[in-house]
Amino acid sequence: MEWNNETREGVGRTRGEVESRGVMTRVESGGVVAKRDKKYPVLLGGIKDAPEQLYYRGSWNSDIFKNCLAVVGTRRMTSYGRRVTDQIVGEVASRGITIVSGFMYGIDAQAHRAAIEAGGKTIAVMPCGIDLVHPAHQTDLHEDITDSGGLIVSEYQSTHPAAIWTFSRRNRIVAGLSQTILVVEAGEGSGALITANFAKKYGRKIMVIPNSIVSPVSRGVTQLLREGAAPVECAGDVLQHYGIIGFKREQKKPPIEEILEEVEGEVEKNIVRQLEKEAMEVDELARVLGINASDLGSALSLLQLGGYIREEQGMFYLCS
């Protein structure tokens, strides 16, 4: 767990404090469901260390827990991770599978958003008290989840602070609620691997989306593949584990083909093709493509103005 200024600020804000600053405009309905209650999620109740109660925000409907897929991954999400999360998670959610994740920025947040945008349901499991919004900058996502019929849940009441140990406790709930866990991107020591270990312990199916073997955020994925995780190439690979057979994706051009049709100039097209594989710094991009700095700079500027690529901390990414 990385404790930066953003993390500390998010942990310290209660729902009331956030509302008073005008960030959130309402308080959602909510309550608590005890383990002995018939409404308590059956799958979660079957694990040895199930929480004694779940506090929640949103409208509790037990149907949301019938078919759950946990989606977890790195906070350092790449453009590739964003694209495959939007595509695969969105398609899975559109078929009635509930997406469960941990609400952190990166893959977690993208999975929640993909489910909502597909018209599906999602459950966010928090590492802090139910009255906290953590991380604080995702208050809009917090609200969107409940507005779309999803749930915010936590085993901690009120303003219980997030701590290093509460994140791993949160991860066991993510795994416990789900029949299958999908790891999108994960580096060495990633919290996603902790969730995967809980999934193994609970006898859940573990699936991963393969990535470049030279990418730092693929090392955890590679480790899971060695240990027997199933690779995923499309939403159908996931849906078959929920008894949904014969799923066919909508036949449309991949985003990369659409971009290449719109972009003019061979230099620009080559840049797009390279960034589709992985994000790169400008010097590395120039070396790989054999382009001089002047031509490369002009082409990058045109692609940025067109909204095809973006720059973050010196790295160029293909926009999803």
Walk me through this protein's architecture.
There is one protein chain. This protein is of the alpha/beta class and 320 residues long. The chain has 2 domains: 5-242, Rossmann fold (3-Layer(aba) Sandwich); 255-318, Winged helix-like DNA-binding domain superfamily/Winged helix DNA-binding domain (Arc Repressor Mutant, subunit A). Helix content is 42%, strand content 15%. A 9-stranded mixed β-sheet has the order 1-2-6-5-4-3-7-8-9, sandwiched between helices. It has a 3-stranded antiparallel β-sheet with strand order 10-12-11. α4 (79-94) runs parallel beside α5 and α7 (164-177) packs across α8 (191-201). It is elongated and about 65 Å long. The two termini are 27 Å apart. Residues 1-28 have low confidence and may be disordered.
**Structural class, from helix and strand content?**
alpha/beta
Give the percentage of residues in beta strands: 5-15%
Biggest pleated-sheet summary:
9 strands, mixed
What is the overall shape? Answer: elongated
Order of strands across the widest beta sheet? Answer: 1-2-6-5-4-3-7-8-9
Distance between the termini: 27 Å
User: Which CATH architecture of the largest domain?
Assistant: 3-Layer(aba) Sandwich
Order of helices and strands: HHEHEEHEHEHEHEHEHEHHHEHHEE
Quickly count the domains.
2
Give the helix proportion (percent range).
40-55%
Q: What's the CATH class of the largest domain, please? A: Alpha Beta
Gyration radius from CA atoms, angstroms: 20 Å
Might you state the CATH topology name of the largest domain?
Rossmann fold
Counting H and I runs of at least 4 residues, what is the number of helices?
A: 14
Q: What is the number of beta strands?
A: 12
